[in-house]
Amino acid sequence: MSVVLRYGARSDRGTVRPANQDSAFAGPRLLVIADGMGGMAAGDLASRLTIAAVAPLDRLATARALEDPTDTLVNSLQAAAEDANRLIRDEVAANPALDGMGTTLTAVLLAGGRISMVHVGDSRAYRLRDGELQQVTKDDTYVQMLLDEGAIGPAEAAAHPHRSVVTRALQGRHVEARYSVRPAVVGDRYLLCSDGLSEAVAAESIAATLSAYPDPQDCADQLVALALYQGATDNVTVIVGDVTEGEAGAEQPSVLGAAADREPAMDGQGPPTGS
Predict the structure, then answer these.
(1) In whole angstroms, what is the distance from residue 233 CA to residue 239 CA?
(2) Helix locations, the chain, DSSP H
(3) Category of 172 on φ-ψ map: left (φ > 0), alpha (ψ -120 to 50) or beta
(4) Is residue 109 helix, strand or coil?
(5) Between helices 70-94 and 42-54, what is the axis angle to 10°?
(6) Comparing 61 with 87, which gets the higher pLDDT?
């Protein structure tokens, strides 16, 4: 029996922002969040381009074109991230007014019985296992740097005025993304989210919600509702993916946020649905 992701996803522009610059993709083998930045239309363009570059990995993994060794998985994610960065660079070269646009990228790829991840920016990935929540990514932010140096503590970090300042992102220039590989354990639940969730909702409440709602879509809906109730001022995007035994079905993957408003071509995958 194969191992796949049973997923649910939701994206909302939040209570303040005039538009949604988050983009997301959720399929049976791939979960991706890209939180755009840069103002005006630039942030949503950067996140859409990133989804277009990374999304084809879902089809490749479902077709079993991506298997062991581990290096193959990391190389595939790295190539997709570099392609996203190139697309952003090409857009800026064609229109210099877009200079400064960028996006975070956090993605989970399931293939060959392993979970591989790429991360750059402050969109987070968490794993819930046996009721315990672990943050498996590390924020690329100014505040995280201060925490690592011991200059501030967690309480100060939570209220720091520059807590949203990102130190690394895809902006068309060279950037060192982080890559990791771990076994795909049936029963694990992964959460990918933009900082609209993690800044508005405490980790304890996130863990409680992930444990309380067995259905991934119900859980994603509840987490977004919780962030909005807490007054989230940023876009809020959530993907919940359960590692489970089964086969990838015929349903189309979900494309959300800015990428759903103006969907780029997804390499022949057909017209995905959005939320």
Answers:
(1) 19
(2) 42-54, 56-62, 70-94, 142-148, 154-159, 195-198, 203-212, 216-229, 258-261
(3) left
(4) strand
(5) 150
(6) 87
Helix (H, G, I), strand (E, B) or coil at 136: coil
Q: How many CB atoms lie within 10 A of CB 86?
A: 14
DSSP output for 2-20: -EEEEEEEEEE--SS-SS-
Task: Provide the token pair at 89.
Answer: 């660079």
Q: pLDDT tens, 65-104?
A: 566 556 678 899 999 999 999 999 999 999 999 998 999 9
Q: Which residue has better confidence, 67 or 45?
A: 45
Contact assessment for residue 224 and residue 189, using Cβ atoms and an 8 Å cutoff = no
**Angle ∠(103,109,112) on CA atoms, nearest 5:** 160
Kindly write down the DSSP assignment for every residue of 152-190, as one continuous string: S-HHHHHH-TTTT-BS--BSSS----EEEEEE--TT-EE
Contact present, 115 and 108 (Cβ < 8 Å): yes
172 and 88 Cβ atoms separated by less than 8 Å? yes
Give 108-134 pLDDT, tens digit per residue: 999 989 999 999 999 999 999 999 999
The answer to whether 251 touches 58, Cβ cutoff 8 Å, is no
pLDDT tier, 136 (very low <50, low <70, confident <90, very high otherwise): very high
Single-letter residue type at 16: V
Contact 144, 138 (CB under 8 A): yes
d(CA 259, CA 22): 8
Residue 33, φ and ψ in degrees, nearest 5 = -125, 135
Query: Using CA of residue 178, residue 196, residue 272, residue 30, what is the dihedral sign?
Result: positive
